[in-house]
Amino acid sequence: MKRLLPVVGLGLCASLSASAFAQQNATIRWMTGNTAQSVQFANEVAQRYMDANPHTIGGEEYNVTVEIIQGPESATDRYALYLQFFQAQSGEADVLEIDVIWPGDLAEHLVDLYEYEGAREAAEEHFPAIIENNTVDGRLVGMPAFTDAGLLYYRSDLLEEYGFDGPPETWAELEEMARTIMEGERADNPDFTGFVWQGEAYEGLTCNALEWIASFGGGTIVSQEGQIEVFNDQAIAALETAAGWVGTISPQAVTGFQEEDARRIFTAGNAVFMRNWPYAYSLLIDAEGPVTTENVGVTTLPAGEEGGTPAATLGGWQMGVSRYSSNIDVAVDFALFATSYEEQLQRALVVNNLPTIEAIYEDERLLNSPVAWFADLLPVFQSAVARPSTPTAPRYNEVSRAFFTAVHGVLMGTTDAETALGELEFTLEELTGLPVAGGAQDVASR
């Protein structure tokens, strides 16, 4: 273990002077998200760690200062910033929040947490599938901080008012409900819309579009077996359906929305449905506006057709440590603290992020909290659809960019779904060298 000091003999221990254990000062920098909620929680985590000073790390005592760096809101932009750091071998950030799709691509720039005391034991507490995702060639390059999956938020009061028994089970039902409620609400609120989601050309659109396509039975872009499966009738139908929302049940501007854009419209009382991550629920707790937990429900996203299977894209973030940090031992210690049982529980209660430690879902503090519903949706999170980061590594980000660019063109009306996906299939073949799945033969024009 890198954090264990070698002991040559008892005489050496006896001869160590008191000065050898003098407290050292260390500063580490943690790059987080930039929403007000994430920054506030990050500061609370950092303060709890600093309140526990001094920390004994590798046989030495440290007074640690944790500084927060706000990263870009877009995951795509944050990934690009990390690449700048790594290419310059910069220690600008010691501890990095790593998206679930990045471990394979960034592994060479991150330390192996298994080489540090306590990491292997900590890893055993987390969902095995996420630890496996974060392990590259036997090296654990990220400790899970929280997991995620796309969810459907809906105005329960409006559904009841307009005579609907519950949330939609299919996308067609969502369209019908949205149109009916929009027609009624726009009499008094011309800004009211039906459904808000993430339509900008970035990683968030990959998540949304993967949910649409998978829910129609159109595959997952590239299968886990390494076959391209993006050009088929079901995928085309899914994108045609979503393109039909733009300017009808969704505002024209949805093609420029990220998570916070959608959330602001929904929480202002100007939409009946929203696709978002679980974090958005926490902002409804004790809210004073027209939308609170009292009139909002959360459920699985709709299926493509009646009797079909809903799909939710797997998300989540990990804590990684840059190999270019000048305080690696301290940074690892902090990363283990920030992803521990108690900190994940607090993150669940405060930020509504889903724990990666299964035991937390049975903790009475969670079950007696406003996010007790986490336990009810646990099967959704456990069976969420993974993006094809493993079969396309180390080219996933290029694959995703090609995918969300093609989808965005369909949403904007600059191309049709069949043309876009046919061209995308060729692009992915060239980019990855992977074969095309047989399902692509469903498209008559192929």
CATH superfamily of the largest domain: Periplasmic binding protein-like II
- Low-confidence segments, given as residue ranges, are 3-20
What is the class of the largest domain in the CATH system?
Alpha Beta
Structural class: alpha/beta
Distance between the termini: 56 Å
How much β-strand is present in the residues? 5-15%
Mean of residue pLDDT values: 91
Domain unit count: 2
Number of strands: 12
- Spatial order of the strands in the main sheet? 2-3-1-4-12-7
Identify the CATH architecture of the largest domain.
Answer: 3-Layer(aba) Sandwich
Shape: globular
CATH names the topology of the largest domain as D-Maltodextrin-Binding Protein, domain 2
Q: What is the number of helices?
A: 20
Keywords: Signal, Transport
GO cellular component, one term: ATP-binding cassette (ABC) transporter complex, substrate-binding subunit-containing
InterPro entries: SBP
Pfam family, one: SBP_bac_1
Key attributes of the depicted protein:
15% strand; transport; maltose binding; SBP; Extracellular solute-binding protein family 1; D-Maltodextrin-Binding Protein, domain 2; disordered N terminus; 446 residues; 20 helices; signal; four-stranded mixed β-sheet; alpha/beta
